[in-house]
Amino acid sequence: MTNLATISDAHVRSDQRHLVDDELWDRLVNRVVQDEAMERPLAERIVNETLRFLRLAAEHPAGGFSPSPLVDIGWHTFILYTREYAAFCDRIAARFIHHSPKDGAATAGASGSIADTAQALRSLDGAIDEDLWAGAADLSANCNSGDGKCCSSPDGDSTTTGN
């Protein structure tokens, strides 16, 4: 598990903030700060990478992408704001981007890994916040073991998963 206190501020800032309005950005960041007891700069990075991840899922619906544990924090936070999340999904994907944990038949055969997702994000934007995706290869081993962690369904059903 990544120690949140040790993640450096040296990272790529390919800003995804334009995908939401300023008020929603602040609400999401503040909720991550509050719920996860972390500093605002890290929370901003998490929300930024969450938006990048969701943009990837929107542009490649059959991709079967999986978030890193830190990005999944941002996704869980965004989903709490159900109306805003649904409107965001409709605007960027013209569909709801589902969050489905791998814990049953609905995600059987899922093969998306966190490392594959990080590579797809690099292809999309050229660079990502590597610290937030660090250790993805190690985490992917757990992801595909059927232990209920973040795994995805590449069957094109517009479902992207997390834990």
* Largest beta sheet: strand ordering: 1-2
The poorly predicted ranges are 5-12, 106-110, 137-149, 151-161
* Spatial extent as radius of gyration: 14 Å
The biggest sheet, with number of strands, parallel, antiparallel or mixed sense and barrel status, is: 2 strands, parallel
Number of strands: 2
Structural class: mainly alpha
Given the C-alpha coordinates, what overall shape results? globular
Helical fraction equals 40-55%
Strand content: under 5%
Q: Between the first and last Cα atoms, what is the distance in angstroms?
A: 14 Å
Mind explaining what this structure looks like?
The chain has 163 residues and is an all-alpha fold. It contains 7 helices and 2 strands. Strands 1-2 form a two-stranded parallel sheet. Helix 2 crosses helix 3 (69-80). The model is unreliable at 5-12, 106-110, 137-149 and 151-161 (pLDDT under 50).
Write the layout of secondary structure elements.
Elements: H1 22-36, H2 40-59, H3 69-80, H4 82-93, E1 98-99, H5 114-125, H6 130-133, H7 136-143, E2 159-160
Parallel strand pairs: 1-2
Helix pairs in contact: 1-2, 1-3, 2-3
State the gist of this model.
By secondary structure, the chain is an all-alpha fold.
Task: Describe the structure using short key phrases.
7 helices, globular, disordered C terminus
